[in-house]
């Protein structure tokens, strides 16, 4: 990965039910509401108010300019509704490039996380041929997120990574396992 600072437009990825796209100001109210929901935010550092939601929002958009990839906005194709954020990111201090997922309460339990994370992983591996794997950082108590990782073919490495003041587990999948899993599926 290079540290070049360049503008990188966010691609648009369409799946059967979703559109993964870049951040727009129209997404800020829904993002702010999602990050104020205790059930949604409990495993990603907790709820935040409007000021911190704005900072996160700007950082999510800026990640694309600085890294050439980042979280996508997840939009429901049928309604245009904001569903959450899913995709690759690599914050400073992270152990490896991660694909993460956060969906608002209305979007949970419908398979959207697997659908969007899978599409973003396909895009990521195509865009970064040098990438050998990706990880997901998951709280040990977050069973729904672990199920998403399992459905993506990821495995718990047993490694611990401390973030937001608590310990998380690192899940990962290699490029080879990803490609073989997609071909078999």
Automatic annotation (TrEMBL):
InterPro entries: Acyl_CoA_acyltransferase, GNAT_dom, N-acetyltransferase. SUPFAM superfamilies: Acyl-CoA N-acyltransferases (Nat). GO terms for molecular function: acyltransferase activity, transferring groups other than amino-acyl groups. It comes from the Bacteria. Pfam families: Acetyltransf_3. Residues 17-154 form the N-acetyltransferase domain. Gene3D superfamilies: 3.40.630.30. PANTHER family: GNAT FAMILY, PUTATIVE (AFU_ORTHOLOGUE AFUA_3G00765)-RELATED-RELATED, N-ACETYLTRANSFERASE DOMAIN-CONTAINING PROTEIN. This is N-acetyltransferase. It comes from Aquisalinus luteolus.
């Amino acid at each position: 990965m290079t540290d070049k600072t360049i503008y990188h437009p966010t691609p648009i990825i369409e799946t059967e039910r979703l559109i993964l796209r870049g951040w727009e100001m129209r997404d800020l109210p829904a993002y702010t509401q999602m990050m104020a929901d205790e059930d949604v935010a409990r495993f990603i550092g907790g709820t935040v108010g409007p000021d911190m939601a704005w900072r996160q929002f700007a950082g999510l958009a800026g990640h694309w300019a600085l890294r050439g990839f980042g979280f996508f906005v997840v939009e429901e194709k049928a309604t245009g509704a904001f569903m959450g954020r899913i995709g690759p990111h690599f914050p400073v201090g992270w152990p490896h490039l991660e694909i993460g997922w956060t969906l608002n309460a209305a979007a949970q339990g419908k398979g959207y996380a697997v659908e969007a994370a899978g599409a973003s992983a396909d895009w990521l591996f195509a865009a970064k041929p040098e990438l050998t794997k990706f990880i997901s950082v998951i709280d040990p108590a977050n069973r729904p997120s672990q199920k998403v990782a399992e459905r993506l073919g990821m495995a718990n490495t047993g490694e611990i990574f401390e973030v937001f003041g608590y310990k998380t587990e690192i899940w990962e999948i290699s490029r080879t396992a990803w490609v073989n899993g997609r071909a078999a599926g």
